[in-house]
């Protein structure tokens, strides 16, 4: 039985962008990935979460950006805390969470959310988990959250067992001081997406004839990305990033029914970036299970690229970020309700 700490505990974690994408699960029940992935943690996208166990509560209470949340998102948090505490027979908790990025910008990330919650739960349950254990715990909330435990560049490993997760956790590759890059996030829609990543992955695995090839080729992309990051070879990192993104989206599009996460502005932004590249400006796109386009570039090119992309019809705004730090406990930043 966990040793409950009834004081409020606050943790923060940053979202991440996958340069080599995670798409597909070898176990839905245990949330085990079918492929490894490599990501960059993002400084500007931060989640701060305060967790407090309270013996007087009858159910968990969740507040996100000053609004009470019920239904599925709350159930997911309750299930996660049961897993962290290794029992559902536990005191209920109040969870108050806040994102540094605008709510409804289509960026609300389960990665920073579950990484922050994992770190807060570890402290509130006096678990003293290692980084590896924290990452494994965060993964149970959301696969991409496992990578947000670390700053800079991280790799999510993929085990081979179907009934245990001993090899399914992320490891750090390089911290945020390794390489000063920029990621520009072009927001093209603030609508809620029709098909979330979990459902999208399950559909793809079940129905796409490309799926096996995707799984088999991932190892080569991971190896190349590791060396390119180590060598700080920007052209190579960019080329691999785009390759993994388009392979993932091609795979999603080949599902039945097909999954197309893009809108017209997404496509227009891709072409704008490619046109800049023809003019010698190094910039590369990546896209997750949504219509926003993320552009990887070097700091001295960020302003020019931003201006070009802002002129695309349908691009609402651009969020600029540099590599961000690891998830941590924060003393000063208690989120008030
Ligand atoms: C396209 O981590 O959201 O962003 O494990 O089901 O919660 P679950 O999926 P999630 O999927 C992320 C998919 C992606 C690619 C990536 O981040 O690697």
Automatic annotation (TrEMBL):
Occurrences of domain Diphosphomevalonate decarboxylase-like N-terminal (ranges): 13-165
One GO CC annotation: cytosol
Source species, domain of life: Bacteria
Signal peptide boundaries: none
The Mvd1 C-terminal domain, residue ranges: 184-315
Record-linked Pfam families: MDD_C, MVD-like_N
EC number: 4.1.1.33
GO annotation terms (biological process): isopentenyl diphosphate biosynthetic process, mevalonate pathway
UniProtKB keywords: ATP-binding, Lipid biosynthesis, Lipid metabolism, Lyase, Nucleotide-binding
GO molecular function, one term: ATP binding
Gene3D superfamilies for this protein: 3.30.230.10, GHMP kinase, C-terminal domain (3.30.70.890)
UniProt similarity note: Belongs to the diphosphomevalonate decarboxylase family.
Annotated protein name in UniProt: diphosphomevalonate decarboxylase
């Amino acid at each position: 039985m966990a040793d409950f700490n009834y004081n409020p505990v606050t943790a923060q974690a940053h979202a991440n962008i996958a340069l080599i994408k995670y798409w597909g699960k070898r176990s839905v029940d245990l949330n085990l990935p079918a492929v490894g992935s490599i990501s960059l943690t993002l400084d500007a996208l931060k989640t701060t979460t305060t967790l407090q166990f309270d013996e007087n509560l009858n159910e968990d209470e969740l507040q996100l950006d000053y609004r009470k949340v019920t239904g599925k998102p709350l159930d997911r948090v309750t299930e996660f805390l049961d897993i962290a505490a290794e029992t559902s027979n536990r005191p209920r908790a109040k969870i108050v969470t806040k994102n540094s990025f605008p709510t409804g910008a289509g960026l609300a990330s389960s990665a920073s959310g579950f990484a922050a919650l994992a770190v807060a739960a570890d402290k509130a349950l006096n678990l003293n988990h290692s980084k590896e254990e924290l990452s494994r715990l965060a993964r149970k909330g959301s696969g991409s959250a496992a990578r947000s435990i670390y700053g800079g560049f991280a790799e999510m490993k993929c085990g081979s067992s179907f009934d245990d997760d001993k090899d399914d956790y992320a490891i750090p590759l390089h911290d945020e001081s390794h390489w000063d890059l920029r990621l520009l996030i072009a927001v093209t829609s603030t609508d809620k997406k029709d098909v979330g990543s979990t459902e999208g992955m399950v559909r793809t695995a079940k129905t796409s004839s490309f799926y096996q090839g995707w799984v088999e080729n991932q190892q080569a992309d991971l190896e190349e990305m590791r060396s390119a990051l180590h060598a700080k070879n920007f052209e190579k990192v960019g080329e691999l990033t785009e390759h993994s993104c388009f392979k993932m989206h091609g795979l999603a599009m080949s599902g039945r029914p097909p999954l197309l996460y893009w809108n017209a502005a997404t496509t227009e932004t891709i072409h704008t970036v490619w046109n800049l590249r023809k003019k010698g400006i190094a910039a590369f796109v990546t896209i997750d299970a949504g219509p926003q386009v993320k552009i990887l570039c070097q700091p001295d090119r960020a302003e020019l690229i931003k201006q070009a992309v802002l002129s695309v019809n349908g691009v609402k705004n651009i969020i600029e970020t540099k590599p961000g730090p690891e998830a941590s406990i924060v003393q000063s930043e208690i989120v008030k309700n």
